[in-house]
Design goal:
It is a single chain. This protein is mostly beta strands. It has one domain: 7 Propeller (Methylamine Dehydrogenase, Chain H). It contains 2 helices and 34 strands. The strands form 8 sheets. A 6-stranded mixed sheet has the order 1-31-30-29-28-2, with no helix packed on it. A 4-stranded antiparallel sheet has the order 3-34-33-32, with no helix packed on it. The protein starts with 16 loop residues before the first helix and ends with a strand.
């Protein structure tokens, strides 16, 4: 299938404005969604795409070999809660498949069920000789699974690779290497991407804003590049693009690790930027040259974008003249040590609130971090709530935001991307924003806390009322035994945990599960991709 609105793959630049408007704002409709509903290769259909590489399982010890119970708990009895209620983005996929934290609000919530257990079918695919982690995974309308993966081969190079997986068996049906990446503990340079409403992929590895679509040629899907915008003249040398996203008006916002934030206006050819690095004299930088300032991913509403540095939470917007402005800056306690992968907060901003008026992150205060809830309009603090236990408190996962409720998972004890995962402390806590009679937020109250939850990540499934997570058993000292855990949204109690795999390949580096509409869960780990689903009858 050919999309006639696309220019040829070569010689695309920022100055082909009409083409880029079509590419990056409107996509090309159904022709850009060659594996969409009803098409060849639809999920569960008889006509599946032939694999270009079959899944190679990751090595895994069985529960019997380890002498452990494969399942602890009870079969899940769904207890649905209210569907998430966030404004639809006019240009993005709004089903929970547009961003690393599911949507443009980074809600961490799906209107989907998840599995029921007790017995799960576990399928894995090992990627790369050294590392093969897919941080962002989304589900196409056809059911196939799309990932942006850092894959390292025997020569110790890391390539950013777009991969299309068969959701039935994790066979690879399409892939494209889109650029090399430095070997640094950071999500920048290709871990994050945006899936728009026409299933076009917008990504930035390492300093080019690129768009791809999936096109079927002779019955086989392939990633086709539509545009590549070189941003190297707009950001510092050695900077990596951290994240990019379309706003409601079609401007393409981006941020770089070195503090530059801005957008490409595809109608006027203008690139507008504000430099946050000038404001960060209180930031404990990772490197002496000032790099590693901006981190995590962007959240966006109809008025502004929100992002976190290693010193502050920012709201940034375009004024009436199109100039980029800092609406407010909310400093937080960044601590004196690196509590996770990078200095400062381990969370991306999450937008929430029954009045659609709040944003939350966690700080990096020494010994015990705090949940911070901020008024989205003013930047004023609504509440500051200590989390978990002194000396056992940190997080590398963004909060779930559902209405006025928030859930945070503990990653205290995280030793780094290649360290054992069983050093992480347990803990899962839920809070609710308190409002006065006029609906104004006045503080936060704890709904529940679970000090024994071993899931170091959290995703909400509203159709089952379950918080899904994944983590290593801290009570096993000499090995990393990883479990999928299900916790009740209303009480925080563990419903069940089920053994998934052991050792470094199954380590997700505190990453979260991604949920398929059919109830299956997908997870990117150091060794590759893990599929967890109910056993077929």
């Amino acid at each position: 299938m050919h999309c006639s609105s696309f220019f040829p793959r070569a010689a695309l630049s920022l100055f082909f404005v009409p083409a880029l408007i079509a590419l990056l704002v409107t996509g090309c409709g159904e022709s850009g969604s060659a594996v969409g509903p009803g098409g060849s290769g639809g999920a569960g259909g008889s006509n599946r795409f032939e694999p270009i590489r079959e899944a190679t399982p990751m090595p895994r010890q069985t529960p019997e070999e380890l002498g452990i119970e494969p399942f602890v708990g009870e079969v899940l009895a769904p207890n649905p809660i209210a569907a998430k209620n966030i404004p639809a983005h006019p240009l993005l996929n709004n089903d929970g498949d547009s961003r690393i934290h599911n949507d443009h609000y980074n809600s961490g919530a799906y209107d989907r069920p998840g599995p029921t257990a007790p017995t799960l079918d576990i399928t894995t695919h090992r990627l790369g000789d050294l590392v093969g982690i897919c941080a962002t995974m989304t589900i196409l309308r056809s059911g196939y699974v799309l990932g942006s993966c850092f894959i390292g081969n025997a020569e110790a190079s890391i390539d950013v690779t777009l991969v299309m997986f068969d959701n039935e068996n994790l066979d690879i049906v399409a892939e494209r290497v889109i650029g090399p990446r430095p070997f640094i503990p950071n999500a920048a340079g290709g871990a994050y991407f945006t899936l728009d409403k026409d299933e076009n992929i917008i990504i930035g590895p390492p300093n080019n804003l690129q768009q791809y679509h999936i096109e079927v040629t002779d019955g086989a899907p392939e990633f086709v590049q539509d545009a590549s915008i070189d941003m190297s003249s707009h950001i510092r040398e050695n900077a990596l693009l951290q994240d990019s996203i379309l706003d409601y008006e079609g401007r393409l916002w981006f941020m770089a690790t070195t503090g530059e934030v801005g957008y490409v206006n595809l109608e006027t050819e203008a690139v507008k930027i504000v430099d946050l690095a000038n404001d960060l004299d209180d930031c404990p930088l990772a490197n002496d040259d000032g790099t590693e300032i901006l981190q995590n991913s962007i959240a966006i509403d109809q008025d502004a974008v929100y992002m976190v540095t290693c010193a502050a939470l920012y709201r940034i917007s375009a004024d009436a003249d199109g100039e980029v402005q800092v609406d407010w800056r909310a400093p937080y306690d960044s601590g004196t040590t690196i509590g996770g992968i990078l200095p400062g907060s381990g969370t991306s901003p999450t937008l929430l609130g029954i009045e659609d008026d709040l944003v939350t992150i966690c700080d990096n205060a020494d010994s015990q971090i705090n949940l911070l809830v901020i008024d989205r309009a003013s930047g004023m603090e609504v509440c500051k709530q200590p989390l978990f236990r002194p000396g056992e408190s940190a997080t590398e996962n963004s909060s779930i935001g559902h209405g006025d409720d928030l859930v945070v998972a503990n990653n205290g004890g995280f030793g780094g991307p290649f360290a054992p995962a069983n050093t992480m402390f347990p803990g899962l806590e839920r809070y609710r924003v308190v409002r006065d009679g006029d609906g104004n937020p006045t503080g936060c109250e704890q709904v529940w806390q679970n000090d024994t939850a071993i899931i170091n990540s959290n995703q909400l499934a509203t159709e089952s009322g379950v918080i899904w997570g994944y983590g290593a058993d801290p009570d096993v000292e000499d090995a990393d035994l990883f479990y999928l855990g299900a916790h009740d949204w209303e009480t925080g109690d563990e419903i069940f945990r089920t053994y998934i795999g052991d050792g470094r390949p199954f380590n997700p580096i505190a990453g979260q599960v991604h949920m398929h509409p059919d109830g299956a869960l997908y997870l990117g780990s150091l060794g590759g991709v893990i599929l967890m689903r109910d056993v077929s009858e």
